[in-house]
Amino acid sequence: MVGWGVVEQFARRREKRTDLRSAVTSLASAVEEVREAAVAFYLLAGNDPQSHSLAATIRSKIAALAEQLNILKEAGLDLDTDDLLKRFRQSVTGGDFDSHARQPLLAASPMFVKMAGDAQALGRAAQTAMLKKLLS
Amino acid sequence: MRPDLESSVIDIADQFTRFPAGRYRTDGPYSGQRFRDDVLIPALKAHNKVTIRLDGTMGYGSSFLEEVFGGLVRSKEFAQDELPGKIALLSRDPSLISEINEYLSATYH
């Protein structure tokens, strides 16, 4: 009986770890989706018909990131990502985001580098918190 | 104007829109400029304290947030150091509150 209890306990722990890895992977994918949508958005002019729907997608996906981060925190991850999410939102949706007068950016614009850096920092923070939790 | 009531609550999703977007009125019907000038400033003039509920919308762009709160400071309708005491922010997303506080405390020239 005791043996089965131990086996079950290990199985549950393994399942929880798998769920945690999956949730962090999902967060990283969601961050990357926002970045990709942002690149597509900024390559278009503000008055392009596609801009409006891309902007709405970006706003709602960033809001969903906050929810995902809350779930990870509730699952016990020691996440200090508020500032990173703020910076990512600012780099993607600041300035003239939503302006009809916005001009398209060149693909080599430094703004894309900044967005990619902020996206990576956010994803990396979640990965690091997960590894700390798994190894603790 | 003398505040007539102690406090007020603005639920953006319920009382303004679930789709806040844009900085200026020219960017759309639910811009930061419109929220600031038509909703927030009148509420701050009428009440000593205004609580803003941020949840329930389809997300915020920083351009909207900056225009509302950075623009509020730039408007000079209120002393910048009194704004943190007049505005309370509620959200499940702490990064939104942090961002707004950044705009409320920034130095503008």
Question: Overview of this structure, please?
Answer:
The complex is a heterodimer of chains A (136) and B (109). Chain A has 136 residues and is mainly α. Helices cover 77% and strands 0% of the residues of chain A. Chain A has 4 helices and no strands. Chain A is elongated and about 70 Å long. The model of chain A has no long low-confidence stretch (mean pLDDT 93). Chain B has 5 helices and 3 strands; from the N terminus they run E-H-H-E-H-H-E-H. In chain B, helix 2 packs across helix 3 and helix 3 runs parallel beside helix 5. The longest helix of chain B is centred in the middle third of the chain and has 15 residues. The N and C termini of chain B lie far apart (27 Å).
Q: Helicity range of the residues of chain A?
A: over 70%
State the total count of DSSP E strands of chain B.
3
Judged by helices, strands and strand pairing, the structural class of chain B is alpha/beta
First-to-last CA distance of chain A: 28 Å
β-strand amount of chain A: under 5%
Question: Helix and strand succession of chain B?
Answer: EHHEHHEH
Beta-strand portion of chain B reads: 15-25%
Counting copies of identical and different chains, the oligomeric state is: heterodimer
Continuous helix count of chain B? 5
Q: What kind of sheet is the major sheet of chain A?
A: none
Features:
heterodimer, A: 136 residues, elongated, B: alpha/beta, 5 helices, 3 strands, 45% helix, globular
